[in-house]
Amino acid sequence: SFSNLNFLNHFNVSYNNLTGQIPTSTQLQSFENLSYVGNHLCGPPVSKNCTSKGISTDVANNGSSNEGSKVNWLYVSIVLGFVMGFWGVVAPLFFIRSWRIAYYRKLDHICGKLHVFWATM
């Protein structure tokens, strides 16, 4: 653990998305506040106070309330792409007989040309 080290000359964990309380009565207390910037750490030397669970009050109050309202747009776009692809291509081939016949005739024609091309090579 970092708290057991006593020979560090420089220490910087800025912007590493760390959470929790900085261990007390260790060498970690002697480094500047700038060494911990960009994290959700609490306790000295950082100015944020800790709750009983060791999580800063800012993270405890704001972290859980915002996560429920976030939308993962990657999954939304995957679902929309699937729905649009299915209803735009597969569903008409399944439900409209003339489209299905034309599609498979064209596919058979292309496969025939590829077979002739490969056979003459």
TrEMBL record:
<dbReference type="InterPro" id="IPR032675">
    <property type="entry name" value="LRR_dom_sf"/>
</dbReference>
<keyword id="KW-1133">Transmembrane helix</keyword>
<protein>
    <submittedName>
        <fullName>Uncharacterized protein</fullName>
    </submittedName>
</protein>
<keyword id="KW-0812">Transmembrane</keyword>
<keyword id="KW-0675">Receptor</keyword>
<dbReference type="InterPro" id="IPR046956">
    <property type="entry name" value="RLP23-like"/>
</dbReference>
<keyword id="KW-0325">Glycoprotein</keyword>
<dbReference type="GO" id="GO:0016020">
    <property type="term" value="C:membrane"/>
</dbReference>
<feature type="transmembrane region" description="Helical">
    <location>
        <begin position="73"/>
        <end position="96"/>
    </location>
</feature>
<keyword id="KW-0732">Signal</keyword>
<keyword id="KW-0472">Membrane</keyword>
